[in-house]
What does this fold into?
Amino acid sequence: MKKLSKRSLYLLIGFAVPFLNLLNPAWISIKGVGPSWAVLWLLPWALEEGSWHGMFAGFCIGMLVDATHLEGASQIPALIILGFWWGRLGRQSQLIESSFNLGLLAWIGAFLIGLTIWVQKIYLLENKTISFFHAFSLHSLLAETIITALLAPIICSLLLLYFFRYKT
It folds into this structure.
């Protein structure tokens, strides 16, 4: 049997992202809000593969994540933008290996995803806005960005080192 390449294995790990969203381990969450697993998977992929691959991967991972819930808001637009932006950063700049850089990029990514979902939900609610909804959305946005930024240096650097730095 032919051995799977590391790139193919990384793509298979991408299929685990929706399941991680559904599992939402309690020990990796802040008051029930877990990290943005799509950001943690997309960041290393887009940095190494470039902007077009990043956009396509953002679309695909967004479709997988959006298939797990029935809400009207979608993560796809933000993930496509992030895939393109991170792909350009990865191609035009020096190697992004610093823990601070990975954490900051993941924080920005999780913030953009949370903000686009919040804006979409406000638009879908139309004139039925409730102050409790905004307080909960702000809590979810802050908790998701914090936990994603804290996990990014660990998870993204391991993914970068194992799957991309030593291409075979």
